[in-house]
UniProtKB/TrEMBL annotation:
Matching InterPro entries: Ig_TPPC8_1st, TRAPP_III_complex_Trs85
A GO term from the CC aspect: TRAPPIII protein complex
Source organism of this protein record: Thelazia callipaeda (Oriental eyeworm)
Record-given protein name: Trafficking protein particle complex subunit 8
Domain called TPPC8 first Ig-like: residue spans: 541-713
Length: 1208
């Protein structure tokens, strides 16, 4: 390709002189004669001279000098056969021409110019290449001439004559335009329709004849003549002179004056011969000649001629070596030539030509960096056009070297220089080529410069708009004034191109689409995250709000049939896969956040929502003006749409507004397209990125109105309280809708901490408690109001009492839902949440002293430190037993078994900071006080459904026993006993403010599992200790051994040993043996109400030594359980198997069958033979329940008697 380029540029120049007849003939085919020859010869530059024509124009447009003194001449006679010319006359004319100029220099070309519209047009591509740039060049020349003319007329012509001058210039421009059109229309029209295929072959033969038979022989002859002249003129004297000057004249100073050689000098003859060899492809011989002549030019210090010889030597060597390598190429020749052109000869055009040729050769050798270095070295000139061309060429080579950044950078530099040179189109092309390397690659300033240049200088408005739109980015580091300029120009282009009234989508301001909040209806007034149904909880089927709504719906309607979730708030955390329902004539509110990321203020006007629905059925609200400050954070705005009546499904599409910059206003829009959650169910969804639908901005407007209550309870309230403290809130409920409410209930997920009261009569100050019923999920409680019907405008007072948790906590959340039904069976819910931070102030513990009598000890400790800034005095007000039914065996609390309290002492209990106090009382089933008051009785106290910190002991029951219980035909009531400790604290804060708070702590049942309260037939379930937090303010002194396998049957029996006297006086001198009568009673208190068989074995000293390991383990278990319920002072008692004096029983083994709730008495007589202290509990008692093969060891209490010898 490079060789073709050089050959094309250094081809011989042919001058064509034609007659008028030839021009008329070629005009039939829309061609000139030179154009006619283009497809058949590589002649790209022709100069046509008219008769006696004088060249007009600048110096670079004058006729070129001839290469040789005697030019090659070739004569062509054209004969048009279709005109009916005489062939004999044509032959005679051609004979005369041939005789005068030579037969080899003449040719007869015959044509048949008959029109044929089916002929092909091979001239189009050649003519387009020939006339390429002609129109642009003439237009540029016209602009320069007009600018110069206008500059002259500004000083010479007054303002009154400017109109006539403008008319003249306009007519002149029209004439010039016509010239341009005529020149360009040559290639646009159809050519060669009067030149047949035979004529075209004749033209080809004519060209071959001229080249091979005339031109080449003539060139060979001229080369021979030149070679002979060079040899003749170059003799011994010339060689000696040249050698002496070469060896002895090197130190001479460089000449400052330029040397000019005569046209017929020897050096010029050699150069002329070398050029002719180069033109006609003899590159090797031409290289030798250039090498010789450059040495002579160097010796003569003719640097201008030397640079030309160096340039041609490098070219000829490059073309003479087909497979030249980078090391073989004489790059220093071109470097020296370029240096001589620029520094010595001061020929910038020649230097540019040499640089372009050198860069082309270097790039073909893949020396792209060296080529770019040569090109860039000449860009420091003041000529912007030359520098722009060189920079553009360097960019191309940087791209081939895969140096993309340098390529783009030099494209920008080239565009800048070409723009300064007035070449706007070339500059645009350079900027376009550079843009892809900067676009979206964080070269912000360079990218903005290129885009702004393209947007301002593009002639097409649509193209300019496309470039300018890329400048409007939400994230930009440009200064505010520059960004404002970008936006203003963009809005100006939008207004120029806007043909319709449709708003334009804008990337600014930013809208937080994914976090849009939609509220369907007037409530809730504000959106709180804790009150929203979380989609993650839905995935885990554990959403508390849906469970609360289901429990409320079931409590109001009696079943779950027809339940439908009433969703009034949609956020990014809710399940938005379905379209929500919206009430008519209530606002549909859209809360979205806007952010101005620009460094200047944005002004929006007439902001509203675009809704795809009948506008006659909607009422929109407008925000007149929004001013977003520079670099502001997300600012929420609320927009609303009110459906006037049933309008079916409506969709909110976008946010519409008018963007104002100075005096330019354009209607814009921000699309609100919410992307749904990532799908990850099927294999296709897991392997590809797919998103679901988000119908947050869609709504179905119902036909009927919804009920609506105004509740003056805050949606979220945060409380700081003490553990067990009771907080009371009074609030009103008002029906503000035209729909009558027929049922109201309050549901919570912490029924143990909540108590609800409603007013007894409208306007009454007396409140009645609302019964709490547990839902299917026992963790939820439903408070259904007795009087839940409210007509329009009617109000109702309610009281809400909340007890702080018994353990220290932070951010403990209590969810409360108010659920109500209208008389049209439409429902609505309103959610509330209470967040509690609780800390301990009172620690309570209950200890069982004697399970036979039910003696208990209550200890209270004030946990407020003396050094604390808080002062607290706590007073005990009440102790009460609390029974709760887990499975609702007893619907009414009156059906619960009675547990009474008996005081052992009567006094007030008050404790200051860090003080500890205790009080004892008895728990039994005998008649007594249901509550122990330590002050005057207080009315209107809350009733809780159950203690909040106590759980059942089912985790301690073995799986086999639990399975056996479930298989029974009868059901055992699961009742739980705890004790409520009601107290009052007088608080003095650090700021000297005083307050009084009430609270109630619950302590668990101190009786072990399976052990009944004295005189109470029912056995209460026990609570699990492992679930109690160590910070719990309520404790029970019950510790189970870690090594024991706990079974509920261990406490299914109560064993007692009695004797007439525990001190016996006996005279062993009179009677050797002493008889001791005892009575053993065993009571069956099995929780499963089973009958059993009791077996009693007497254990003496030797038999106790032979007990098996299993029996010993059972005794250890029994002893361990005994230690957990007796006072610590009894912990030193010995086991019955310990060493003591011999005891003999009259009955070694006894059996009896005992039914549930029955007591069996066994009379035994023991005999001892010496005075001592005896443990008469030396029996092993086991029970075997019906249907169970495992014997249950029965705890035998240690009973001691003292035998005293009367002789002492």
């Amino acid at each position: 390709m490079l060789e073709d380029l050089i050959r094309h540029g250094f081809s011989p120049l042919l001058a064509v002189l034609t007659s008028d007849g030839v021009e008329r003939f070629t005009a039939k085919s829309n061609l000139s004669f030179t154009d006619l020859l283009l497809p058949f010869a590589s002649i790209n530059c022709t100069v046509k001279y008219g008769q006696h024509a004088e060249p007009i124009g600048p110096s670079y447009c004058v006729s070129p000098k001839w290469f040789l003194s005697n030019c090659f001449k070739y004569y062509l006679l054209l004969d048009d056969i279709s005109s009916g010319s005489n062939s004999s006359r044509t032959s005679s004319i051609f004979s005369r021409i041939s005789a005068e100029y030579g037969a080899h220099n003449c040719y007869l070309l015959k044509f048949n110019s008959i029109y044929d519209d089916e002929l092909t047009d091979p001239w189009r591509s050649h003519l387009e290449s020939k006339y390429r740039g002609l129109e642009k060049g003439l237009s540029l020349a016209k602009q320069k001439v007009l600018s110069k003319t206008m500059g002259l007329t500004d000083d010479l012509i007054s303002a009154t004559n400017q109109s006539s001058l403008s008319g003249q210039l306009f007519s002149a421009s029209q004439n010039n335009d016509s010239l341009v059109v005529n020149s360009s229309s040559v290639s646009a029209s159809i050519h060669g329709q009067c030149i047949s295929y035979d004529d075209r072959e004749n033209i080809t033969r004519m060209m071959e004849s001229m080249i091979y038979e005339s031109l080449l022989p003539w060139v060979e002859q001229q080369m021979r003549i030149l070679n002979e002249q060079v040899i003749a003129r170059r003799g011994i004297s010339k060689s000696l002179t040249t050698g002496v000057r070469k060896w002895f004249g090197a130190a001479a100073a460089q000449q400052t004056t330029s040397i000019t050689y005569a046209w017929d000098s020897g050096e010029m003859q050699i150069r002329r011969l070398a050029d002719m060899c180069f033109i006609f492809g003899l590159y090797s011989y031409a290289h030798q000649l250039y090498q010789n002549v450059r040495k002579e030019f160097a010796v003569d210090q003719a640097w201008y001629y030397n640079a030309g010889a160096l340039e041609m030597a490098a070219l000829s060597y490059f073309l003479s070596t087909p497979k030249i390598t980078a090391k073989q190429y004489p790059q220093h020749y071109m470097d020296d030539a370029i240096n001589f052109y620029t520094t010595v000869s001061l020929k910038p055009i020649l230097a540019m030509r040499a640089t372009l040729l050198s860069a082309t050769m270097l790039s073909s050798l893949e020396l792209y960096i060296e080529a770019c270095t040569q090109l860039i070295s000449l860009t420091s000139s003041d000529d912007d056009l030359f520098s722009g061309i060189l920079l553009e060429k360097a960019s191309v080579y940087f791209g081939k070297a895969n140096m993309r950044r340098k390529m783009a950078f030099h494209y920008v530099l080239a565009g800048h220089r070409m723009s300064k040179a007035g070449q706007k189109q070339l500059a645009m092309e350079c900027y376009k080529k550079a843009l892809p390397e900067y676009l979206s690659k964080r070269w912000i300033f360079a990218e903005d410069h290129i885009l702004h240049t393209l947007a301002v200088r593009s002639e097409g408005k649509e193209e300019a708009l496309s470039w300018c739109s890329l400048l409007i980015r939400p994230q930009s580091v440009q200064c505010g004034n520059q960004l404002r300029l970008f936006l203003k120009h963009y809005l100006w282009l939008l207004r120029q191109n806007q043909t319709d009234k449709n708003p334009v989508q804008m990337p600014i301001p930013l809208v937080d689409v994914q976090n849009i909040i939609v509220i369907y209806g007037e409530h809730p007034v504000e959106v709180i995250r804790d009150l929203i149904t979380d989609v993650e909880a839905l995935d885990n089927t554990d959403d508390r709000w849906i469970n609360l709504a289901k429990a409320a719906y079931c409590a109001l309607t009696g079943s779950f049939a027809g339940f439908r979730e009433t969703v009034t708030v949609r956020t990014a955390y809710t399940d938005n896969s379905k379209v929500s329902s919206a009430p008519p004539l209530e606002r549909i509110r859209v809360v979205l956040s806007l952010k101005n990321s620009m460094d200047f203020c944005l002004l929006l006007k007439d902001i509203h929502l675009e809704v795809s629905a009948d506008q006659a059925l909607l009422k929109e609200n407008f925000i007149d003006e929004i001013s977003l400050t520079p670099k502001c954070d997300w600012i929420p705005f609320e927009f609303s749409v009110i459906p006037k009546a049933f309008s079916g499904e409506m969709v909110i599409r976008s946010l519409l507004f008018n963007l104002v910059v100075d005096d330019i206003t354009v209607a814009c829009s921000l699309p609100l397209n919410i992307r749904g959650p990532r799908l990850n169910n099927t294999k296709k969804e897991m392997t590809s990125v797919l998103y679901g639908d988000d119908h947050r901005l869609c709504a179905k407007v119902t036909k009927e109105r919804w009920p609506l209550l105004e509740i003056d309870l805050p949606p979220k309230r945060e409380i700081t309280a003490f553990c067990g403290q009771i907080c009371r809130f009074d609030f009103s409920v008002t029906n503000v809708s035209i729909i009558t409410t027929r049922a109201i209930c309050i549901v919570t997920d912490h029924p143990k901490l909540l108590c609800v009261h409603e007013e007894k009569d409208p306007g009454s100050a007396v409140f009645c408690p609302v019964k709490c019923t547990l839902a299917a999920d026992v963790s939820l409680g439903v408070f259904k109001l007795k009087h839940g019907d409210l007509v329009t405008g009617q109000s109702k007072r309610l009281r809400l009492e909340i007890r702080a948790p018994s353990v220290e906590c932070t951010q403990q959340k209590i969810s409360i839902m108010c659920y109500y039904l209208g008389d049209n069976n439409l429902s609505r819910e309103q959610r509330h949440i209470i967040v509690i931070d609780a800390r301990l102030i009172l620690q309570t513990s209950l200890r069982l002293l004697d399970f036979a009598t039910g003696a208990c000890l209550l200890q209270l400790r004030n946990l407020v430190q003396n050094r604390s800034s808080l002062l607290a005095r706590i007073k005990l007000l009440r102790i009460r037993p609390f029974i709760n039914d887990k499975k609702n065996y007893f619907p009414e609390r009156d059906q619960y078994p009675y547990v009474f309290l008996h005081p052992l002492q009567s006094r007030q209990v008050e404790i200051e900071s860090e003080q500890l106090d205790s009080i004892s009382f008895l728990v039994s089933g005998n008649a007594g006080a249901s509550q122990l008051w330590f002050c005057d009785e207080i009315d209107d106290l809350p009733e809780w459904s159950a203690p909040d910190n106590l759980t059942d002991i089912s985790c301690l029951v073995s799986p086999s026993s639990r399975a056996d219980i479930e298989k029974k035909d009868f059901a055992v009531p699961e009742l739980y006993l705890s004790f409520g400790i009601f107290w009052r604290a007088s608080i003095v804060n650090s700021d000297s403010t005083a307050s009084t708070v009430l609270g109630e702590n619950f302590v668990l049942n101190p009786f072990p599992a399976g052990c009944s309260i004295p005189s109470c037939v029912h056995i209460f379930q026990s609570y699990s200790l492992q679930h109690l937090n160590e910070n719990d303010g309520t404790k029970c002194q019950l510790s189970l051994p870690s090594t024991a396998i706990i079974n509920q049957d261990l406490f299914a029996f109560i064993c007692k040993i009695s004797t007439p006297s525990f001190i016996i006086h006996h005279n062993f001198s009179e009677k050797r043996s002493c008889h001791i009568p005892i009575q053993i009673s065993v009571t069956n208190n099995d929780i499963c109400r089973r009958s059993c068989t009791i077996t009693i074995h007497f254990l003496d000293f030797y038999l106790g030594k032979q007990t098996t390991d299993s029996e010993t383990n059972s005794a250890i278990i029994s002893e361990s359980l005994h230690k957990c319920v007796v006072p610590p002072s009894d912990s030193s008692n010995h086991s019955p198997t310990s060493l003591q004096a011999a005891i003999v029983a009259n009955r070694l083994c006894m059996h009896a069958r005992v039914g549930f709730g029955c007591t069996q008495m066994f009379d035994v007589r023991l005999t001892v033979y010496c005075p001592s202290i005896y443990d008469i509990g030396c029996f092993r008692i086991v029970g075997l329940f019906d249907g169970d093969r495992t014997e249950v060891p029965i705890h035998v209490p240690s009973t001691y008697i003292t035998v005293i010898d009367q002789r002492v």
